[in-house]
Amino acid sequence: MSVVKENKGDVFFVYGYGEMGKTFLWRTIYAPIRYDGHIVLNFASSSISSLLLPDGRTIYSRLILQFELTEDSLCKINPDGELASLLRKTSLIIWDEAPMVRKHAFEALD
Q1: Cα-flanking dihedrals φ and ψ of residue 74, to 5°?
Q2: What secondary structure letter does DSSP report for 110?
Q3: Number of domain units in the chain
Q4: Distances (CA, A) of 96 to 14, 16, 74, 81, 87
Q5: pTM attached to this predicted model
Q6: CA–CA separation, 104 vs 109, rounded Å?
Q7: Which domain holds residue 103?
Q8: Each residue's pLDDT tens digit, 28-84
Q9: How far apart are CA 110 and CA 105, in angstroms?
Q10: What is the 3-state secondary structure (H, E, C) of 11-62?
Q11: Cα–Cα distance between 81 and 86 in angstroms, integer?
């Protein structure tokens, strides 16, 4: 929470089997940050998981990624568009099931 409030920027990795409370954790982090007026983007690697997150979307729809990821894959985000502006203003990205996707998705977002 302090990383978001102090605008430091960081990456955290949460790993756990099913029914371990990860969705509860995401919701618990999401609520107070949104309450403070910050933008939080929730997305997941699968459509089922995205439905469990507040305002959740899949990485493919949110980041405009193709389904068949390769080392040359890119997010098709217009740098002057609304999505790019939203990403610049975003304080926190919650990516559920991140280990379920190939590394090319992270590289495309980067």
Answers
A1: -135, 155
A2: -
A3: 1
A4: 9, 11, 20, 25, 17
A5: 0.76
A6: 9
A7: 2-109
A8: 888 898 899 998 888 877 766 766 777 777 777 777 777 788 888 888 888 999 989
A9: 9
A10: CCCCCCCCCCCHHHHHHHHHHHHHHCCCEEEEEECCHHHHHHCCCCEEHHHH
A11: 9
